[in-house]
Each structure stands twice: as C-alpha cells, then as structure tokens.
Amino acid sequence: MVPARTSSLSCSWRGSRPPGRPMTVAIIGLPGGLEPRHEQLKELVRAGTIDFYEVIGREVVIYLREMDVAQKVRFKIDVIGNIAGDYTGPASRIYLYYPDEEKHWNEPLKVSISPRA
Description:
Blueprint: E1 6-14, E2 24-29, E3 34-36, H1 38-46, E4 52-56, E5 59-64, E6 72-81, E7 85-88, E8 92-96, E9 104-106, E10 110-113
C-alpha cells in the first residue's frame, strides 16, 4: 500500500440465526496507519447496506438492526494509508447486541504501507 492512496477492505458475513433476533454488531479492527473514509461509510448507510456505524479508535463498528437466517451482507470499506510501516490491527468480531456472549472472532488484519518514493 502507498501513503495517501485509497484501498478497500472486503467485509462479508451471513446470518445464522432465525429472523427477529436482536441487532447484529460487527467490529472491524483496522491496522495502525489506516483511516476509513467516512463519506463512503455514510453512503453504505444511505444505501441501506448497514443501519449505522461509528469509528472508535482503530475499529469500525457496524450495526444491523436485523438479519434473516440466510441473509448475506457484503460491502467494502475504503481506507487511506497515512503513515509508512508494518501494522497489525485488533481482531475483528461479530455478535448479537443482546446477548453478547456468542462472539465470532477473526484474525487481525495486517498491512504494510510503503514509504513515499
């Protein structure tokens, strides 16, 4: 990745619970040096792909009010590399808002941002 250029993270998951379950929360951990494009996240909300989002530190928190059992969610998050270096983000996870005991964890994302030429 090159500083000041946009790249995309592909995000996807599918529902595995009966309809009518509580809100689904997906937390995508971003490696250091990356910043999400807020305008693109707002577009995902306007398009109805996600219900709302927030960025807390290095994590993008995605909320879906309800998911059907076979519903598939797929979208990309555009990120901009800011500082050259090798980074590892916090682990990403997805769970039901209530109860939150059953979390599915994914390996942390890694990125290498090259110095400017």
